[in-house]
Amino acid sequence: MRVLVVEDEQLLADAVATGLRREAMAVDVVYDGAAALERIAVNDYDVVVLDRDLPLVHGDDVCRKIVELGIPTRVLMLTASGDVSDRVEGLEIGADDYLPKPFAFSELIARVRALGRRTTVALPPVLERSGIKLDPNRREVFRDGKEIQLAPKEFAVLEVLMRSEGAVVSAEQLLEKAWDENTDPFTNVVRVTVMTLRRKLGEPAVIVTVPGSGYRI
C-alpha cells in the first residue's frame, strides 16, 4: 500500500510516516498543501493522510482536487478540532474518513488499512493463496501452517502479489506500491527482494517470474 502523509507539523508527520513504514507501507511525506498537489499529480496513492489546516493550499482544497480528478485515492482527514460540524464538513467535501487529534496510532493504522482496502476490489481481511496465508493487520505470514518472518519490504511485496489474485505484477508496479518516491527506479531492489522472499517462503517456489512482464503467485 502506498500512502501520502500531508501534515505541516513536521515531527508529527515524520512520526506517522515512520510508524506506517513499520507496517510495511510505502510512505511519502510533504508538509504543505501545494506540495501535496504536486505529489498527487505524479504518483498513485492508495490513501492520503491529510491534515486539514495546511499552509499554502488548505487541506479542504487538496481534498476537493482529489475528488475533482476522479482518482480512487482515499482521504483520511486529520484535524485538531473535534467539533462535530467540522467532521461533517470535511466528509461533505469528499474526505472518506475523519480522525481528530490527538489520536491513538493503532487507530490511525486501522483506518488507513480499511481505506486502502476500498481502493481495490474487496478482498477478505486475511489473504490466502497457494498455501500462503497473509494477515495484513497482524503482519503475519504462514505457509502450510508454519509462520514465516519477513522484513517490511518483503511483506509489502508479498501483499501486493497476493492482492493481484494471480495476475502478473510488473517490477514497476511493485516499485510503485512497496517503495516511496526516493527509491531509484533503476535499482535492482525489486529483483533482490523477490529473490529473498522466494528463499524465505521455501520450496516449491510459489512466486513465478513471467519473462518480460513481472511476477505472479
UniProtKB/TrEMBL annotation:
Any single biological process term in GO:
regulation of DNA-templated transcription
GO molecular function annotations of the record? phosphorelay response regulator activity; transcription cis-regulatory region binding
Q: What SMART domains has UniProt attached to this entry?
A: REC, Trans_reg_C
| Gene Ontology CC annotations of this record | cytosol; protein-DNA complex
Instruction: Cite the OmpR/PhoB-type domain residue spans from the record.
Output: 124-217
Q: Which UniProt keywords apply?
A: DNA-binding, Phosphoprotein, Transcription, Transcription regulation, Two-component regulatory system
Task: Tell me which CDD domains the record gives.
Answer: REC_OmpR_CusR-like, trans_reg_C
Mind telling me which InterPro entries this protein's record contains? CheY-like_superfamily, OmpR/PhoB-type_DNA-bd, Sig_transdc_resp-reg_receiver, WalR-like, WH-like_DNA-bd_sf
The chain positions of domain Response regulatory read 2-116
Q: So which domain of life are we looking at?
A: Bacteria
Q: Which residues bind DNA?
A: 124-217
Where 4-aspartylphosphate occurs along the chain? D51
* PANTHER family from the UniProt entry: REGULATOR OF RPOS (PTHR48111), TRANSCRIPTIONAL REGULATORY PROTEIN CUTR (PTHR48111:SF36)
Role:
Member of the two-component regulatory system CutS/CutR, involved in the regulation of copper metabolism. CutR suppresses a defective melC1 gene, encoding a putative copper-transfer gene, probably by altering copper metabolism.
What is the protein's name according to its record? Transcriptional regulatory protein CutR
